[in-house]
Design goal:
Elements (H helix, E strand, L loop, with lengths): L2 E3 L5 E8 L2 E8 H5 L10 E3 H17 L1 H7 L7 H17 L5 H11 E6 L3 E7 H10 L1 H8 L11 E7 L1 E5 L2 E5 L14 H18 L6 H8 L3 H8 L6 H9 L8 H6 L5 H8 L15
Parallel strand pairs: 1-5
Antiparallel strand pairs: 2-3, 3-4, 5-6, 6-7, 8-9
Length: about 290
């Protein structure tokens, strides 16, 4: 793993041995070249703490359909390909913790490009192109990589993930301090009315796709509901994947109710997030408007 404390100094992995025990850490390149610049020692960070934070962030990214859709440009793909990418990302997140150290390293090195350590955060930079290749080809991509067949990556290819963390020196050692509940999921409050609306919308959409009904009137007759109600709920079939995921898991904004959700559903996923109170997935995400 390559790190860059601050904004200029590249850091590299190193180790020391004390009382027969080996300690790994990352040290600034400027300290390696000029030991006098060591200062208070804050340019040296224990490797296990840093690597744990990086892996946690990568796993959170892979588990999020929203990030996979937005940051890997999956929202521009066909629904079938998008679903495969999201499923592959979740599968990779599930297997990474159980891999051997060599297996974990091979997969992370495949798409992880740089880690930048700042005073109050850690920036994890990954290659979107190489991550897509790993998700689509699995171990075959790893084998190709071992032959040195990959192309150089460009700046536009990088995805930036930010971890809140401060460097603090305690007892002669530097520690990474993360905010409380960094790894704890947010409380869940499922709303049956929202879940039912999303489920109905997708069920009705499938009937339209399969040719079972031709318009809102016939769909309303089939469902035994008013055409106005069916039309309002049907629009939920075009919600952004991350919004649907949040509703099904009960992580939607507290004030989001059936009336607010079905009043008007914009076609733009970006506008949906803003209107319904969801946070943007990240800066620079793509608009997954329904075409």
């Amino acid at each position: 793993m390559c790190c860059r404390p601050g904004s200029e100094n590249v850091a590299h992995a190193s180790f020391t041995t004390k009382r027969g025990r080996r300690y790994r850490y990352y040290v600034s390149q400027s300290v390696i070249k000029n030991p006098a610049s060591r200062g208070d020692g804050s340019t040296r960070v224990p490797a296990p703490a840093l690597e744990e934070r990086v892996i946690e962030k990568v796993l959170a990214f892979l588990r999020s359909d929203a990030d996979v859709f937005d940051r890997l440009s999956a929202d521009r793909e066909s629904p079938a390909i998008s679903k495969k990418l999201a499923s592959a990302a979740k599968a990779l997140a599930a297997c990474l913790p159980s891999l051997s150290s060599d297996g974990l390293r091979d997969r992370l090195v495949f798409f992880l490009r740089r880690v930048v350590i700042r005073d109050n955060s850690i920036e994890v930079m990954i290659s979107s192109r190489d991550l897509r290749q790993l998700l689509q080809n699995g171990d075959k991509a790893i084998a190709v990589n071992s032959l040195g067949a990959r192309k150089p990556f460009g700046g536009n290819d990088l995805i930036s993930l930010i971890v809140e963390a401060k460097r603090k020196k305690r007892g002669g050692e530097v520690h990474l301090v993360v905010p409380p509940n960094f790894s704890n999921p947010s409380p869940r409050h499922p709303k049956e009315s929202l879940i039912k609306a999303v489920a109905r919308a997708h069920s009705w959409y499938e009937k339209v796709i399969q040719g079972q009904v031709s318009d809102m009137r016939s769909l309303a007759q089939l469902a035994g509901l008013t055409e106005r109600y069916v039309g309002k709920v049907f629009a939920c079939a075009f919600l952004a994947p991350d919004i649907i995921e949040s509703i099904l898991e009960g992580r939607q904004p507290h004030d989001l109710n059936f009336e607010k959700l079905c009043r008007h559903v914009p076609l733009s996923w970006v506008e949906q997030r803003a209107q319904f109170g969801f946070s943007p997935c990240s800066t620079g995400h793509r608009d997954g408007s329904v075409q």
